């Protein structure tokens, strides 16, 4: 039998449906691959091999009765920021080292009542970072070059998919945390429209920005996984009550007649030449495939990173207030309650979490609120207006996903600002809440480059169709590494 | 310049303990980050409304209906210190 690990998720699902493999065999293959490579990669904080086999057996048992969704057949990797019933969920933090959630996040519950899960993937603490080096459980290594980072914060999910420790993964994206690691590991990463996927059970970082998204081997897998997790949820008041269309129906329709704008501000000298070159090549390929390709300006994109690094820390300083040693997580005992809070948070949080709590608390404090937070929220309005104008003229916007290919472990850990610059291409879409996808476009310095495509709110169907065309143009191919 | 005293004040607002080393480093790091984001203040946005939610949703309501949720035993299971039916905390000072 052909190695199951070389199949896409939809390929595996079809194989199992045809009766030529079982879900249990798939789970065994993933467990074996984790065993083989994860000592080197550290993609996982927690692996769940027995749980995967047990649940796989039950899905196999349900198959003859019918009613099993195609995605349920394919074992999945889940970022350790998503609550999983009965399985420890750390958020990459010491403060949640022994925390076991009582329910599954809605996105995962939509995937299946008992999702066949390979394990919980490593991440920057509370999803703050662009390299997965800010994890209390050690850095994850890039399967393309184990001396380099996989990107972040969903670096564990990206590395696991790129290495074939599973067929697909859920990641989360606040300012690029699905797209940038997908780009650096040579896989597809989709940040859906804000509100398209319920945040219930996602441990919050920036509540007005956080999105759960698929990290997959190809665009068709991305469409299939989005189909599984999307939908309105009364438990999340920010989830959108908008019908979920069939994301696979028009996937192969091509880009004939589609208007594609390359974003000028995201193609300047801040982006490595090799990355720009790959992006231009894909845009030219889309033109050859029948799209109308031009240039478009998002003038306030120059202020997006700055606005993001006020809004996201402000929201996180508020969200992380819940980790107080009272209801769950670590408690460091002390005489009075305030000293208990301070000591618990001092020991439980890592350096970047502390830095962002301080930055956010400062930006929200009396005397600075208007200068920083309120101003950043107004910049956000301007960015949304820029996108609105751009979408009056174009259907899809194109840019690089990240300014460079994967960098070496340790290269940016002493310089928070250099690390933040990794997000320059990703944050405009995050602030505007529009969907964006990273597709492998080619190589630079023998490492993968991601090309980002952005659509208007709730146009994931068209975005995926354009991404599928870009994937055909790039002809990148996927095989598990190393 | 953010002084060590300001760092201590903000940390105390956030109920965040910092080591002496962290206090010394934090001021300079916050300065560097704030310097880099200073440029958003050059935009004149007096007439621009702020955005809190990218879809502009507000006041989303659902019916106020009771339904089975976690039992108190389940809800207390992850607590560091539970006494009877309650979360126990040190003396409130």
Q: Classify the fold: give the CATH topology of the domain at 1-229 in chain A.
A: Amidase signature (AS) enzymes
Query: Averaged pLDDT of chain B, please?
Result: 93
* CATH classification, class level of the domain at 1-229 in chain A: Alpha Beta
C-alpha-based Rg of chain B, rounded: 22 Å
Low-confidence stretches of chain A: none
Number of strands of chain B: 2
Largest sheet report of chain A = 11 strands, mixed
N-to-C SSE series of chain B? HHHEE
The proportion of strand residues of chain B reads under 5%
- Please identify the structural class of chain B as seen in this structure: mainly alpha
Short description:
The complex is a heterodimer of chains A (482) and B (93). With 482 residues, chain A is of the alpha/beta class.
Name its key features:
heterodimer, A: 482 residues, alpha/beta, Amidase signature (AS) enzymes, 11-stranded mixed β-sheet, 11 strands, B: 93 residues, mainly alpha, Histone, subunit A, two-stranded antiparallel ribbon, 3 helices, flat, ATP-binding (chain A), Amidase_dom (chain A), ATP binding (chain A)
């Amino acid at each position: 039998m052909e190695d199951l690990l070389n199949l896409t998720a939809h390929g595996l699902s079809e194989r199992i449906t045809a009766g030529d493999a079982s879900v249990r065999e798939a789970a065994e293959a993933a467990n074996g691959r984790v065993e083989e490579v994860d000592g080197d990669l550290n993609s996982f904080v927690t692996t769940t091999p027995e749980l995967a086999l047990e649940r796989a057996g039950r899905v196999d048992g349900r198959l003859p009765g019918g009613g099993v969704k195609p995605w349920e057949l394919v074992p999945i990797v889940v970022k350790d920021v998503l609550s999983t019933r009965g399985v420890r969920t750390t958020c990459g933090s010491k403060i949640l080292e022994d925390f076991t959630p009582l329910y599954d996040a809605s996105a995962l519950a939509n995937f299946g009542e008992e999702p066949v899960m390979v394990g919980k993937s490593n991440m920057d603490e509370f999803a703050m970072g662009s390299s997965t080096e800010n994890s209390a459980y050690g850095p994850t290594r890039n399967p393309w070059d184990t001396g380099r980072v996989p990107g972040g914060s969903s670096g564990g999910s990206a590395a696991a998919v790129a290495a074939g420790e599973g067929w697909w993964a859920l990641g989360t994206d606040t300012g690029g945390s699905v797209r940038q690691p997908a780009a650096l590991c040579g896989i597809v990463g989709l940040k859906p429209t804000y509100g398209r996927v319920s945040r219930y059970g996602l441990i919050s970082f920036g509540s007005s920005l956080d999105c759960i998204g698929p990290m997959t081997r190809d665009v068709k897998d991305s469409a299939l996984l989005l189909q599984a997790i999307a939908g309105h949820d009364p438990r999340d008041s920010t989830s959108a009550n908008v019908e979920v269309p069939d994301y696979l129906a028009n996937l192969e329709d091509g880009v004939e007649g589609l208007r594609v704008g390359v974003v000028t501000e995201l193609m300047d000298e801040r982006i490595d030449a090799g990355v720009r070159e790959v992006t231009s090549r894909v845009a030219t390929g889309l033109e050859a495939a029948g799209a109308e390709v031009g240039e478009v300006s998002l003038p306030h994109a120059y202020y997006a990173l700055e606005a993001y690094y006020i809004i996201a820390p402000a929201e996180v300083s508020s969200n992380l207030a819940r980790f107080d040693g009272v209801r769950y997580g670590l408690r460091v005992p002390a005489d009075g309650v305030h000293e208990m809070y301070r000591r618990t948070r001092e020991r439980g949080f890592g350096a970047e979490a502390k830095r962002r709590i301080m930055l956010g608390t400062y930006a929200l404090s009396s005397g600075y609120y208007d200068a920083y937070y309120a101003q950043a929220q107004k910049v956000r309005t301007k960015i949304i207006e820029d996108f609105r104008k751009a979408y009056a003229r174009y259907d899809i916007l194109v840019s690089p996903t990240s300014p460079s290919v994967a960098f070496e472990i340790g290269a940016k850990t002493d310089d928070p600002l250099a690390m933040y610059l990794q997000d320059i291409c990703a944050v405009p879409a995050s602030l505007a809440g529009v969907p964006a996808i990273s597709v492998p476009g080619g190589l630079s310095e023998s490492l993968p480059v991601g090309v980002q495509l952005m659509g208007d709110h709730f146009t994931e169907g068209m975005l995926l169709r354009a991404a599928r065309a870009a994937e055909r143009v790039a002809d990148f191919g996927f095989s598990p590494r190393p | 310049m953010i002084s060590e005293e300001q760092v201590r004040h903000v940390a105390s607002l956030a109920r965040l303990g910092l080591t002496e080393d962290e206090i010394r480093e934090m001021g300079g790091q916050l300065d560097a980050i704030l310097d880099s984001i200073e440029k958003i203040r050059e935009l004149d946005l007096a007439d621009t409304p702020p955005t809190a939610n990218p879809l502009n949703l507000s006041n989303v309501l659902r019916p106020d209906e009771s339904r089975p949720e976690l039992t108190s035993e389940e809800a207390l299971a992850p607590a560091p210190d539970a006494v009877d039916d309650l979360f126990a905390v040190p003396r409130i000072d």
